[in-house]
Amino acid sequence: MVKMSKGIFCFFVLLLIPTLYGQSVKATVSHTQVEIGQEFELSFSFEMKTTGEVRFTAPNLGNFYVFSGPNESRSTSLINMDLHVTGSYSYVLSAKKEGTFEIPGAIIKIEGKTFRTNSVKVIVKKGVGGKNPQAGSDIQQDLQNEIFIRTIVDKESALVGEQITVTYKLYFNPALQPDNPNYVKLPTFEGFWAEEIDMPGQVMLDMETYNGRNYYAGVIKTAALFATKTGSLEISPIILTLPVQVSTLRNKNQTDDFFNDPFFNRSRKIDYKITSTPAKVEISSLPVDLTIVNFSGGVGNFNVKTNTRKKVYKRNEPIRFEILISGSGNIELVDAGKIEFDKSFEVLDPNINKTIVRTGVISGSKSIEYVLIPRDGGKYVLPAVDFVYFDLASKELKTIKTEEIPLTISDVSYNEGATGNETENIDIFTGDIDLDESVPTYPALWFVITLFVLPAFAAGFFVFYKKKEAVRLSDPELRKRNAARKIASDKLVTADKMRKTANHDLFFTETATALEGYLETKYSLQKSEFTSGLVFDKLIESGIEPALAQDVRSLLDDCELMRFAPVDGKKERMDEFYDRTSVIIQRFEGLTVDENFKNHFVWFYNLSFVKF
Fold this sequence. Notes:
- The protein is of the alpha+beta class.
- The protein has 9 helices and 31 strands.
- Strands 22, 24, 25, 26, 27, 29 and 30 form a 7-stranded mixed β-sheet that branches. Strands 11, 13, 15, 16 and 17 form a 5-stranded antiparallel β-sheet that branches. Strands 1-3-6-5 form a 4-stranded antiparallel β-sheet, with no helix packed on it.
- Helix 4 runs antiparallel to helix 5 (504-523) and helix 5 packs antiparallel against helix 7 (546-564).
- The longest helix is centred in the C-terminal third of the chain and has 29 residues, at 445-473.
- It starts with 5 loop residues before the first helix and ends with a helix.
- 25% of the residues are buried.
């Protein structure tokens, strides 16, 4: 056996180092010490010697507000015939509170190999928060009391699922002459299901006295929140920049005239960033034992009923069994639970439609419609529904039990066509009969084939097709996919109507719910936890290409902005958002996107895919 000297061994190890370390990852921050409200950049970078696939999993950033990110960048260079690829995923953050925080490392997969970056430490100190580079420190200090946003909640403690109304109200000195705001960050309401409360298209301003001073004040956003977990929950702030007119004093000590005497003072416009005041609520669990009942998740005041369109059906005829839940409360999170139908019924995935009234206390209705296919004739009973909800008025559980629905299924098959059983009138002929003695003629061969062979072949093919279709429809993944298509189709039909009538408020709501409902159904996402970030991560885990996942995330964020922010150009951008939604769903379905085909998307899906 040949022994290798230490020197030769070290030489070979040094030669291998570039191969062993062909990939490297690291995390950096632009500032290791920041103040509350101050923005800084967090970056996760990588280097590699390949153009292969890179997948990124972000760490927990719960102690920070995310203004943007992950923002991806990549560059490729060739130095001395050596391929060199660098890239990064970056965030713009600001801290929620004081303290020393360690941001864990991110996970970066390069061509299937997993790397974890180093962790980074950020020290957060109390400061004036969110400094504006355009404004000097003196102006910054003065503006704090001249323009601000209050976060107002109607209650400081609530139960899980109980409505909390949060209002963001802007106060400003009229001498500032603010222009239209630019929203830097809209609230994300982590830990809550949120419903935007309808507001006038324009902010209504009134004179109001606050802390002994007079301000112009107006509500810029109101939302109804329903907590989905217990504990002390923070209501995320709204952050915006506002162009304001500020004065520069000749005598810096004349602070009393700083805003009130523009004639003698020079003035200039600055973009001032405002972060709303923090707010927290304490959330308690429901004071009842939910393990002994089939709880619907409803908290409020509800009613429920069931119905079918008729009571007598044929075999294989679709039965539409509707469960209609109505009332006030967290209607979005309510579920009728699992319904047990007779084994002779084939049960398709339910179609869910909602009507939500967003004025003050959230109310509305939710229709859960099952399509049942009876395979055998006879007498049947559709089961009663036990709907259990928590009544806020009495602070106790209430149960509503619907009545059973009797059905009769005839032995006649729905898809075999009608059978003729009517008698015909017969005339009796009493005259002479002339006998024709000519040679009889017989039908041509093609006529015999057409009359007998082709119908037999068609019947055989129909039976084969029905069996194959039954096997196909029994596939749960296919049923889930068809249900997702149906939701997207229905919502886009409504969005198209809103587009044609220029109803931009309802248009963006229907467009967003079309994509949300499609993704929730197809990927089994929980509605209460549905965020654009969660959807992005879920799509990446499911093997969706990053570009498509990022397009979905961008569209969801843009829809939220158009729905909830008072931005200009909503009507003008409806066609753009309709096309973006149609194209994304076509890409999920593996269809080739045709520019002339986008506007026919809804028609195509209704015609080709929605089957019972």
